[in-house]
């Protein structure tokens, strides 16, 4: 492993969204020579709203942002540990544009712009003996050249490649089909009957948007707890789809409905199209392996993936993963042996499977586990942990999109200190 001695180590950051900006900022602060490549025309990743639709089946649309979106987490937990949202934003649950403005201000505050190359797409990353060969396509000049780096941060996001379920009879269905990745406006469904599959945060939120324009909405899910849709007069809840018919679907309770649109709110696939096979990473049903602590490529530990865990505090976990990996990239901490990292990975996965859920798609799911994970990263690398107030505030927000969708965004949070916060002006114990 190289350490910082006579020359600066070079860092390639793939992507300039929430995770990429954080990787760039912390790398530069650690004295590394870092560059972030962003294929788009501006920074911000998935927070950039665009009406762009695919021209054909080979055209890719990057953003999943839709009109009228407000965050489902309060801004008080969406800032970075060392850079918060400005106090002059009164609401806690803010618009996508306000998030984008915040990311721009973060980049400006930490003077990141000179280190970001826009309209530069990383198309191949390949390990060499002691470094990485990175081919970068400059869209402005239509040229593609190799650049060489000591470390690579993969921060390409995971809201681009839709994950569509295989359901019997879908090819027979004659209505319109769409994944939430391409949903933009509720007016698309004006006076229509719509089936929404999936009741995660985006499924619930989009259902609430669409029902204002649609004639009838069916919400299909397999949640063990029934979401609150009582305030949505034209929404009916349904179990999973058993099979599709030409004009609708039969559900697992035997009921049948007709509708003209299906909207799949069924999540996304983790994909890393720019990584060559000799990078040594496999993705099977969203289980990215082999990774140490959900971020370090065990086969090539000079590569880190930022932001794979879900059901987490996004910005804070990005920042913590970056600060964790930087300690190893700068040589302040030494990696365990490959055998030790593999053993730790196998132990954790064994514990997950031992809970009775042998589902690769949940390999990076955190939920309550996230707080144990943060403690591990802090202990191993000797870095500052996430403040207790962020933990507490996050727990207060949990599952509100299911049970209090009609009202929870009216809550206003105020952080008092590292331990305490107010909710609508009252202290929460």
From TrEMBL:
Keywords: FAD, Flavoprotein, Monooxygenase, NADP, Oxidoreductase. One of its GO terms (molecular function) is flavin adenine dinucleotide binding. Pfam families: FMO-like (PF00743). InterPro entries: FAD/NAD-bd_sf, Flavin_mOase, Flavin_mOase-like, FMO-like. Its cofactor is FAD. Its EC number is 1.-.-.-. Belongs to the FMO family. This is Flavin-containing monooxygenase. It comes from Drosophila kikkawai. The gene is Fmo-2.
